[in-house]
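2024-03-11 09:14:02 DEBUG pipeline.ingest accepted 1 chain
2024-03-11 09:14:02 DEBUG pipeline.ingest length=374
2024-03-11 09:14:03 DEBUG pipeline.predict start
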Amino acid sequence: MEYITGTVSNLLHQTAFANLTVGNFVMIAVALFFLYLAVAKEYEPLLLVPISFGMLLVNIYPNIMAENGLLHYFYLLDEWSILPSLIFLGVGAMTDFGPLIANPKSFLLGAAAQFGIYGAYFFAILLGFNDKAAAAISIIGGADGPTSIFLAGKLGQTEFMGPIAVAAYSYMSLVPIIQPPIMKALTTEEERKIKMEQLRPVSRLERILFPILVTIVVCLILPSTAPLVGMLMLGNLFRECGVVKQLTETASNALMYIVVILLGTSVGATTSAEAFLKLTTIKIVALGLIAFALGTAAGVLFGKLMCKLSGGKINPLIGSAGVSAVPMAARVSQKVGAEADPTNFLLMHAMGPNVAGVIGTAVAAGTFMAIFGV
């Protein structure tokens, strides 16, 4: 009898119920909420499903992120900047840079949207973060998860990598909720109805030269951006050169999805209750939201300025796409414009600032790395 009771007691103590804390239950609820957004609302499900499931796993079985745990090895690929760089390779292979080439002014809108990053940097310092931590947190304003993970790792801010990554990916997923109120508040209905002229055709030679020239120029000025900008442009060169279709398909499909699974689950697994439910985390999430909102607002306001200077030929809504959430931010510009005028088609015009924002966020990360001598 004693053997039976001892065995039953041991089994009970091995269950997750014996070790779960109130914090774990809170994080499990958050994970289920994210799963709801991903499945029921279809908010960036490719990101939210693996992230939320990783969050669920680590709060039921914390050892999955211990030194010999499965997701620990996935997470090391984040720390070593391997997965973020491979994500950029896939993004480059999937993305049409034509709208940016056809309208180089889009670079200005992408640059304007980076204001949120630099604004959040100073806010973070005011809240007591050191300069490197502030830089790692502020990059959330680009709504670019891979760049956020990359910079946090390079600046040695691994203790904040979990909250930073989750905040960045969450805001990427919630772009359709966060951006429209800001866009509508800063524009008039007449501005939202502006129809833009059709973009000029872009030649094959321009498409091939663009990633090569951007790599040379950006990496000569900021060599530290080479892992991100270099992989982004390599992926795009695969797409545009037309002679490596197998590499293009691999980078934009199989490899991309494998990397998203590894990165998403490992990022979600950094959100154990003990590591995540802290005042510092709340500050990081709040700063990320401030950065993202400032970036969106700056892009729209600069779009309004360009609208005035062009005599009303530029719809300010495309400025909101200057944040780096490709292609979701461009789709939101299209959606808000279509609400004002169903015949308005802004998607391709918004893709220019959107692609510029990806490059701009990588440049912002490289600038911080150069400042701190990384």
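2024-03-11 09:14:41 DEBUG pipeline.report The mean pLDDT is 90.
2024-03-11 09:14:41 DEBUG pipeline.predict end
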